[in-house]
Write a structure and sequence with these properties.
Number of strands of chain B: 0
Helix content of chain B: over 70%
Low-confidence stretches of chain B: none
Radius of gyration of chain A: 18 Å
Number of helices of chain A: 10
Strand content of chain A: 25-35%
Oligomer: heterodimer
Number of domains of chain A: 2
Mean pLDDT of chain A: 90
CATH topology of the largest domain in chain A: Rossmann fold
Largest interface: A-B, 34 and 32 residues
Order of helices and strands of chain B: HHHHHHHHHHH
Number of strands of chain A: 10
Radius of gyration of chain B: 19 Å
Low-confidence stretches of chain A: none
CATH superfamily of the largest domain in chain A: P-loop containing nucleotide triphosphate hydrolases
Mean pLDDT of chain B: 90
CATH class of the largest domain in chain A: Alpha Beta
Chain lengths: ~250, ~270
């Protein structure tokens, strides 16, 4: 086992009957690194994240998170990691503060009140702490979801499209905040996103998936150079539209 | 242990926060038990006018049956609906990727079921005493044991219902309200077990509530505590809780394999 690995996935495979959603995915995310997980709709990103979170059992393969085997010891890993997605809501009728308190208890965070105050200040939640989560704007909901994801000071953060449906200003604020947070805490981040500019800015390494398989990987700059393109979005389109022989590109 | 209790409290706190700011939810908890008690209270008051002496006995048996059966119903619904609340708020994804263990999830739901049952049933018990002079707790401390046995039966049924929801998703929601009503004829709430046809008596013998109500009638009509029926009720509770608890855990693991946890609300 690599002691510095935040995630170590070996031959991760998920089959639903005849359909293979994720096919023999292997990668090692080092601690403190930010990696991107890219792919079109149905590429297997969400299935991969679900397996990394232990909510979905792989058909084959093995995942180790922060040194914990997810098949045998997932709760120890879950206490040290967290997850945020705009597609999973927080209870709408509870206030922001109540929601954060619920998760502070679920993650057994000591001095929950102080931690919530700390997050409220860092993520500018002070004015909305006592508002029901269902009454927030998309940008406010994103900041609250981030606060929930950070409540246990995670060593690993899995983010599923963290800036989806945000205006450019709010999206930029979230990206800056994530950059600063990673630099300050050394938290490893695995980011699934369809925003290529975001991935180029935040991620030191990118995993490109298509039809459940890892078809290309490397730093954004290396991928752009390897595909002979100007930016990561064009690389993404090349892969999505089979404009290149992917077998060669993975070399 | 402390961390485990904290996680259970987190789940309970989430539901308490919901009820704190929603008086219609609180009202709904009391509505049906009070309504049931009123209807059966008037029926027994009517019987009292018609049949004089025997009516007070009938009143006790009917009202006691109504109130105690509500304990099982509210416990089952409280557990299952608290679980459904997580599905309705699309929050289950966060809960299942937190360090909350399945056993702690069940413990949190049991606490919520107990609180919901107490809020729903105790006002009805109080009104039965105020309006009809029927004091359920006048039966003595054995009432607490009746409550406990019926609550445990409610949790056991709810574990089964939740397992079905895990397998079949939100389409199985109606079971949360209806399943225990289907057991009413066999639970012998209002009549002795011997009233049932012989074949159905075997079915009733396997239901903890049937033994509780036999015990209630023994206490009301003969003034004695029937330890045999009480013991049978708790033994059956333990068996059903063990069995349906295993079914729930097995279904939870099956849902992790099939991916059902990812789209349970759809």
């Amino acid at each position: 086992m690599t002691p510095d690995a935040a995630i170590r996935a070996e031959g991760l495979t998920k089959r639903y009957g005849e359909t293979t959603a994720v096919d023999a995915l292997s990668f090692t995310l080092p601690r403190g690194a930010t990696w991107g997980l890219l792919g079109g709709n149905g590429a297997g990103k969400s299935t991969t994240i679900a397996m990394l979170l232990g909510i979905l059992v792989p058909s084959e393969g093995h995942v180790t998170v922060l040194g914990h085997d997810m098949a045998r010891d997932r709760f120890a890993a879950l206490a040290r990691m967290n997850f945020s997605s705009p597609y999973v809501a927080l209870p709408h009728r509870l206030t922001v503060a109540e929601n954060l308190r619920v998760y502070a208890h679920l993650y057994d965070v000591p001095r929950a009140g102080a931690r919530i105050a700390e997050l409220a200040e860092a993520l500018q939640l002070g004015e909305i702490l006592n508002r029901p989560a269902g009454q927030l704007s998309a940008g406010q909901k994103t900041r609250v979801a981030l606060a929930k994801a950070l409540v246990n000071r995670p060593e690993l953060l899995l983010l599923d499209e963290p800036t989806a449906s945000l205006d450019p200003d709010t999206g930029d604020w979230v990206r800056s905040w994530l950059e600063r947070y990673r630099a300050e805490t050394g938290c490893a981040i695995l980011l699934a996103s369809h925003n290529m500019a975001e991935v180029e800015r935040l991620c030191g390494h990118v995993l490109m998936m298509k039809r459940g398989r890892l078809v290309a990987e490397g730093s954004p700059a290396a991928l752009v150079a390897r595909f002979g393109r100007d930016n990561l979005e064009d690389v993404f389109l090349d892969i999505a539209r089979d404009r290149r022989a992917l077998g060669k590109e993975r070399a | 242990m402390r961390a485990s209790l904290r996680r259970i409290w987190g789940l309970v706190y989430r539901h308490l926060a919901l009820y704190r700011r929603s008086w219609p939810r609180l009202l709904e908890l009391m509505y049906w038990p009070v309504l049931q008690m009123l209807v059966w209270g008037f029926v027994t008051a009517y019987l009292a006018g018609v049949q004089q002496n025997t009516a007070s006995v009938a009143a006790g048996v009917l009202l006691g049956g109504v109130l105690l059966w509500e304990v099982a119903l509210r416990s089952q619904m409280g557990f299952a609906i608290s679980f459904l609340e997580e599905i309705w708020s699309r929050n289950l994804g966060h809960v299942f990727v937190s360090p909350l263990r399945p056993g702690e999830l069940v413990a949190g739901l049991v606490v919520m079921a107990t609180l919901r049952m107490l809020v729903g049933v105790l006002p009805a018990v109080g009104l039965a005493w105020l309006l009809y002079g029927f004091g359920l707790f006048a039966l003595g401390p054995v009432v607490v044991l009746f409550f406990a046995a019926l609550m445990m039966m409610g949790w056991a049924v709810a574990l089964g219902v939740t397992a079905v929801i895990l397998r079949h998703g939100a389409g199985a929601e109606p079971l949360a309200w209806s399943v225990l009503f289907g057991l009413t004829p066999f639970a012998c709430v209002f009549y002795p077990l011997s009233t049932l046809p012989a074949a159905l008596q075997w079915v009733a013998q396997a239901i903890p509530a049937a033994h509780v109500f036999e015990g209630m009638r023994a206490a009301l009509l003969q003034g004695r505590v029937d330890l045999w029926h009480l013991g049978a009720a708790f033994l059956l509770d333990a068996l059903w809780l063990g069995l349906l608890g295993r079914v729930f855990l097995a279904q939870f693991e099956a849902a992790r394999r099939s991916g059902a946890l990812l789209n349970i609300g759809e």
